TrEMBL record:
Sorted UniProt keywords: Membrane, Transmembrane, Transmembrane helix
Pfam family, one: ABC2_membrane
Protein name: ABC-2 type transporter transmembrane domain-containing protein
Record membrane topology: Multi-pass membrane protein
Organism (species): Virgisporangium aurantiacum
Length: 267
């Protein structure tokens, strides 16, 4: 088998393990009737505020924002996974395996990205239909691709946060909630990014969702596809930057753990 073949086999195996963990928590009924309904309800809840604050236009604005952001909500769960890798001792096993530990570490949470894209896309279709949000066809059919790019960027950001809190498991839930709540607050989900002070606008530019959501809005509004592509490319760039930071920080954490004997368990 070639080196690429070994790499793909290891990546696929790590991803399957992630899905097995998901299956141990949910059945398809509990996921669909529990978690997914919760996501759709959240999007509907925030969209309905538009009726109180500004009318149909604001409802439509929030319906789009609060369905696209769901993919970031889903991928933020990987924060818990990074902490669990160390506390369960599986990070140490990855370090001694012949496959690069960075590869398996990244792949273990890919299920959050794949499930997130599926659930966000489904909620997107349901909520936009319920609120009769006008969309430009057939361009709107590309929305799942745009959501996937947003999800990839959000996944990379969540990986970085997970590595940051790897040594502090007590704050993992706080970190998870702050991760997606920050994105929901400042990245244009419920109010335009321009609403915020200059400092928060600057922060929004380097967070996932901001550029991708703007691209989705442009796509649905009937703008040319070429006009939406720069935003999509910026979203990819943001994801690459967070992924790079996550990998570098992971290497530093592993190097320190090896020298201090603290790779397993955080105490």
């Amino acid at each position: 088998m070639t080196a690429w073949g070994h790499t793909w086999t290891a990546f696929a195996a790590a991803t399957r393990i992630g899905f097995a963990e998901l299956a141990a928590i949910y059945t398809w009924r509990t996921w669909l009737l529990g978690w997914f309904v919760r996501l759709v309800t959240q999007a509907v809840f925030f969209a309905l505020f538009g009726l109180l604050l500004g009318g149909a236009a604001l409802v439509h604005y929030r319906a789009v924002g609060n369905t696209v952001v769901l993919v970031c909500v889903e991928t933020s769960v990987v924060v818990l996974g990074t902490v669990r890798e160390r506390n369960a001792g599986t990070l140490a096993l990855q370090l001694v395996a012949p496959t690069p530990y960075v590869l398996t570490f990244l792949a273990r949470g890919v299920y959050t990205l794949l499930v997130g894209v599926a659930s966000s896309t489904a909620a997107f279709a349901i909520v936009l239909a319920c609120f009769r949000v006008p969309v430009a066809m057939p361009a709107a059919l590309l929305a799942p691709l745009f959501i996937a790019v947003v999800g990839l960027s959000g996944y990379c950001f969540a990986l970085f946060v997970g590595v940051v809190v790897m040594h502090s498991p007590a704050v993992q839930w706080l970190a998870l909630n702050l991760t997606y709540l920050t994105v929901m607050t400042v990245c244009g989900v419920n109010v335009p990014v321009d609403y915020w002070p200059d400092a928060l606008r600057a922060v929004a530019q380097v967070l996932p969702l901001t550029h991708g959501l703007a691209a989705v809005r442009g796509l649905l509004g009937g703008g040319p596809l070429a006009g939406a592509l720069p935003g999509l490319c910026l979203e990819l760039l943001v994801g690459v930057l967070w992924l790079t930071a996550a990998v570098l920080l992971l290497r530093v954490a592993v190097h320190r753990g090896r020298h201090t004997g603290s790779v397993e368990l955080s105490g």
